[in-house]
Amino acid sequence: MKKLRWMLVTILFFGSGLTGFFVVTANSNSGEFLSITHTGAKAKIFESYEDVYIGKQLRWTGNEMPIIKDIQIVKENGVSLSSASEMIQVDLFIDPSHQTDLFYQSSPEVHQVIEDYVGVEGFKLTEPQMTLVFKVNLEKPNYQFDLEELKIIYEIDRREFEQRLPLRNFILHH
C-alpha cells in the first residue's frame, strides 16, 4: 500500500512538473514583429535628392514591450549591409511621432520630424506600433537592389531574440 501511494505521489509530482514546463514554454513565445506597410521610393527620386527618408510601420504582437538591441539590413548574399558601402548608404532611425512615410523635400515641418528621430539601438518600445525610418543615400545610380531582409535583435526579460522580416516591395522601385 505504501508503495502504491509513493508511486501515485511521484507520478503526480512529475506530472505537475511536466505540465508547468509546457505552460512556461507556451508562454515564452512573447510576440513578434509584423510588417504592416510597404512604403517605397522610385529610383528617380535619388537622382534629384541626396537624402530620402522612407518609413516602415512595424507592429509588435506581444504583451511585454521589447528593447531593440540592433537592426541590420541583410543583402541577398546573407551579408549585412555595411555603412561603408560604396553603392548605397542606409541609416536606421525610429520615428516616435509615426509621421514618416516618404520624405525627400525639406520643409520646416519635415525638418522637425527628422530632428525628433531616435536611434534604434537600445530603443524601448512603449506601444505596439513603431515607425522604422531608412535614411537612404544612393551613391551609384546603377546600384543593383540586393537588400533582402531586416534582422531585428531585441531583448525581453534579459533574454535576447532575433527575428527576420523580408523587405519585399520596400526600398526602391524602378
CATH class call of the largest domain: Mainly Beta
Helix content: 10-25%
The pLDDT mean sits at 83
Gross geometry: elongated
- Please give the alpha-carbon distance between the first and last residues: 80 Å
Largest sheet geometry: 6 strands, antiparallel
Radius of gyration: 23 Å
CATH architecture of the largest domain: Sandwich
List how many beta strands DSSP finds. Answer: 12
What is the topological layout?
Blueprint: H1 2-27, E1 33-35, E2 41-42, H2 43-48, E3 52-60, E4 67-75, E5 88-95, E6 102-103, H3 108-115, E7 118-119, E8 123-124, E9 129-138, E10 147-156, E11 159-166, E12 172-173
Parallel strand pairs: 2-12
Antiparallel strand pairs: 1-3, 3-6, 3-9, 4-8, 4-10, 5-7, 5-9, 10-11
Brief characterization of the structure:
The chain is an alpha+beta fold and 174 residues long. The protein is 23% helix and 39% strand.
Features:
alpha+beta, 6-stranded antiparallel beta sheet, 174 residues, Immunoglobulin-like
Detailed description of the structure:
It is a single chain. 23% of the residues lie in helices and 39% in strands. The chain starts with a helix and ends with a strand. Strands 1, 3, 5, 6, 7 and 9 form a 6-stranded antiparallel sheet that branches. It has helices at 2-27, 43-48, 108-115, and strands spanning 33-35, 41-42, 52-60, 67-75, 88-95, 102-103, 118-119, 123-124, 129-138, 147-156, 159-166, 172-173. The protein folds into 2 domains: 1-29; 33-173, Immunoglobulin-like. It has 174 residues and is of the alpha+beta class. It is elongated.
